[in-house]
């Protein structure tokens, strides 16, 4: 059986599921839609990621499009970001893409589509 090899030293570490232990002592798994390559929104719509995680050029292309929904996955929350919050998030992502991010801050992004071919930019943030 052939396995896939990571192309980067941190590839394995980046894909390990993040979780936290709640006050009840039970583990809570954080959603990781870019790594899972799929997400189901609150309305039950299934979104699938096209291709692999976006590079800077591909991410910027989607970030410029006002018709693209922007969703942030951070901690246990996965929420659509709109208005001024969307602009602030995209400015932080642009800073990250330019290499001006705080230490240990990381964004992974994916181009997601639903069955009706609507476009969604999934931004997965970790630190």
Summarize the structure.
This protein is 25% helix and 31% strand.
Keywords:
6-stranded mixed β-sheet, disordered N terminus, 127 residues
The counted number of beta strands is 8
Query: How helix-rich are the residues, as a percent range?
Result: 25-40%
In angstroms, what is the radius of gyration?
15 Å
Q: Determine the number of helices (DSSP H or I, runs of at least 4 residues).
A: 4
Shape: globular
Notes on the structure:
The protein is of the alpha+beta class. The chain has one domain (31-126). It is 25% helix and 31% strand. The chain has 4 helices and 8 strands; from the N terminus they run αββαββαββαββ. It has helices at residues 11-15, 33-36, 56-63, 83-97, and strands at 19-21, 27-29, 38-40, 46-50, 69-74, 77-80, 106-113, 119-126. A 6-stranded mixed beta sheet has the order 3-4-7-8-5-6. It has a two-stranded antiparallel sheet with strand order 1-2. The longest helix is centred in the last third of the chain and has 15 residues, at 83-97. The radius of gyration is 15 Å and the shape is globular. Mean pLDDT is 84; it is low at 1-20.
Write the layout of secondary structure elements.
Blueprint: H1 11-15, E1 19-21, E2 27-29, H2 33-36, E3 38-40, E4 46-50, H3 56-63, E5 69-74, E6 77-80, H4 83-97, E7 106-113, E8 119-126
Parallel strand pairs: 5-8
Antiparallel strand pairs: 1-2, 3-4, 4-7, 5-6, 7-8
């Amino acid at each position: 059986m052939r396995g896939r090899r990571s192309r980067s030293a941190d590839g394995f570490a980046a894909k390990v599921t993040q979780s936290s232990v709640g006050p009840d002592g039970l583990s809570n798994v954080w959603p990781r839609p870019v790594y899972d390559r799929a997400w189901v929104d609150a309305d039950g719509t299934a979104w699938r990621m096209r291709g692999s995680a976006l590079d800077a050029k591909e991410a910027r292309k989607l970030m410029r499009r006002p018709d693209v929904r922007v969703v942030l996955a951070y901690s246990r929350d996965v929420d659509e970001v709109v208005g001024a919050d969307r602009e602030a998030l995209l400015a932080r992502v642009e800073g990250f893409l330019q290499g001006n991010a705080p230490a240990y801050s990381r964004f992974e992004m994916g181009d997601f589509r639903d069955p009706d071919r609507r476009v969604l930019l999934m931004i997965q943030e970790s630190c």
